[in-house]
Every structure is written in C-alpha cells, then in structure tokens.
Amino acid sequence: MSLFDSVWEIFTYDLGIDLGTANTMVYLRGEGIVVSEPSVVAIDKRSKLVLAVGQQAREMIGRTPANIVAVRPLKDGVISDFDTTQAMIHHFINSAHKNYVKGFKIPKPRVVVGVPSSVTEVERQAVIDAAKTAGARDVFIVEESMAAAIGVGLPIEEASGSMIVDIGGGTTGIAVLSLGDIVVDNTVRIAGDEMNQDVVNYVRDKYNILIGERTAEDVKIEIGSASPMKEEKEITLQGRDLLTGLPKSIKFSSTEVREAIMVSLGQITEAVKDAIEDTPPELLKDIYNDGIHVAGGGALIKGLDEFWMEELNIPVKIVDDPLSAVARGTASMLDHIDLLEKVQKSWEELI
C-alpha cells in the first residue's frame, strides 16, 4: 500500500451497504451499523424533488396528497427507478459519512454493496452507477448470500459445506458455500414482500376487505408465525369494505396470518429443498451436522426454525441479529480490498 493510500484510509470511512428492497442498512467501517431505514423515498411529482427518505418516507405511504408519492425504488432486490435510487443512496451515504472534519472535506468512501446473485449485468451496473453518482469513490458488488455467510461467521473458506438462507424483502438467497465460493445457488424472487401481499389477498378474499401492504407487513411482524404458537394471538384489523366502500374492522388471528403467508413460505421451502437436492453428498453431510443458517428479515418470523426442521429434517439455526448479516458481511470484506477486486474481476469475466 502506497503512502497516499495509507493517508487516504486515515481520513476515509468506507461503507458496507445492504441495499434491500424493503430496508437499507449501512455499516460504517470502525463504527458499526449507522443507518437502518426502510428503502422508501417520498417525491413531489410536480417538482420531482425528494421530500423524505427512509422511515419518514415510509410513514407517508398511503397518506400522501395527489402530488406526493412514496415509492420503493428497488424491486426484487434490484433497481427499478434509477434516479430515485440514486437519491436514496446519496441520502444514506451522507447520513453515514461525515463530509467535513475541521473544515476539510473527507475523501469519497469506498463502498461494498450486497446484491442478489440473480442480478443481470445491466442491473449490477445500475447499482455501481447509482453509488458512484451518490458519492462513492470505488464500488464493489458482492453477492448477498456470500456477504450474509461472512457476516454471521460461517467457515466459508474451509473445505466443508455451509448453507445460508437469506430471506429479504424482494428475494430469498439460498446458497451452499465451500472453499470461499458458492457451490449451489438457488436465489428466488419470493420473500417478505410476497408474504405481505399474501396477507392482503387473504383478507380481501375471506372478508371482502382491502388493506394496504404496510398494514399487512405490520400484521405479519406482530402476530405472524410459521409454526403453531403456544398461545395464538388476535388483533383488530381495519380496512375498507369492498361491498360498501366504508371502513370496517375485523378480528384477525395469528392462525389466519400463518395460513396466508404459507403460500409464499411454501415456495421458499421448495426452493430450499431444491438446493439441498443439488448439494454434493460430502457437503450435505456437513450441512446435516452444522445445520442451515437463516438470516434476513424473514428469519424473524416466529417458529420458522421449527417449521423447517420438521419439513427438511435438518437442524435450522436463526443467526444472531439476522437483519444486519449482509451489512456486517460487506463491511468485513472492506478489510480485504485485494480479494474484492479479484472477485469482482472474476465476476465480470463470467458475465
């Protein structure tokens, strides 16, 4: 490392970013998680100005006047609205990175961004362009499954098999890793968002009531589960009666939420089974011994480990702090820039 690079690192705080469909987390090197907010942007349609980003913008969903729209600029883990994503990344980088110290501008940070392994070259380049336009000096793209595995401390560089399932908002990354690489990858674009929509559909079909996706997500988090609970719960759910057009309240149980989300959860389970079937026998033996590690927001669904242990006949472990696994992994990779450059070059050659 040159003297210039050494001095640069003293004044630069590099960032690891989990750019998620539902939430974005930013890990500041040397500090830890400094940003954890919904991936939502509120925009004035007339002036095209960004009015709010993150939690403040999420609170506007479904409550804005006609000229203001609250949008999620990522769909299925990839950029669907470049300009809005750029504005969101810019906001999060500025929130995480102090621009000035004693009157001197801090050099632009290096940024590692976790993306689903299913992204195309165009989608991957869109992430790089958005991050650079938002103020990054160098941008490295890593697969979320790899980042999550590193973030939770799996021995991925050893000659043994490790399995990670990362259930995000737009995608579920399912991977078996060994010797520092992904041996089996079965990423599917079914995750938390689809479960929210399952709840919306269930309430509409059974009760003729329309609720918003934000309400559905809140219900899923509060009383959702994958396995029967020792004490089932019930909440009051409010929505619009599709027959009368008027507000209506119903009692909605955790049993019903479980029945609703099982539509998408069943598809994810089948994808995990497919990955297991594709795993070489020697690595599968390691997974049987060490278990499947589950990360991401979906890992917080109550009883998911019990449900999968029964379905898959393999030990299942919900990792510590599953929400930050990818962000922690991207930050860890900042300590191995040479390796990152090598991995990125290899990825570019494969595409």
User: Which spans have pLDDT < 50 for at least 5 consecutive residues?
Assistant: 1-11, 99-104
Question: What is the CATH class of the largest domain?
Answer: Alpha Beta
Return the CATH topology of the largest domain. Nucleotidyltransferase, domain 5
Major β-sheet strand ordering: 3-2-1-11-12
CATH superfamily of the largest domain: ATPase, nucleotide binding domain
How is the main sheet built? 5 strands, mixed
Main location: cytoplasm
Protein name: Cell shape-determining protein MreB
GO cellular component, one term: cytoplasm
InterPro entries: ATPase_NBD, MreB, MreB_MamK-like
Provide the descriptors you would attach to this structure in a database record.
cell shape, 351 residues, Nucleotidyltransferase, domain 5, 12 helices, 5-stranded mixed sheet, alpha+beta, ATPase_NBD, ATP-binding, 2 domains, Cell shape-determining protein MreB
3D architecture notes:
This protein has 351 residues and is of the alpha+beta class. It has two domains: 3-146 and 326-350, Nucleotidyltransferase, domain 5 (2-Layer Sandwich); 155-319, Nucleotidyltransferase, domain 5. It is 41% helix and 26% strand. The chain is built from twelve helices and 20 strands. The chain has helices at 3-11, 55-58, 82-96, 121-133, 144-151, 192-207, 213-223, 254-278, 281-290, 304-312, 325-333, 337-350, and strands at 15-19, 23-28, 32-38, 41-44, 50-53, 68-71, 74-75, 78-79, 100-101, 104-105, 110-115, 138-143, 162-167, 172-178, 181-185, 209-210, 234-241, 247-253, 292-295, 316-318. The strands form six sheets. It has a five-stranded mixed β-sheet with strand order 3-2-1-11-12, with helices on both faces. A five-stranded mixed β-sheet has the order 15-14-13-19-20, with helices on both faces. The relative contact order is 0.14.
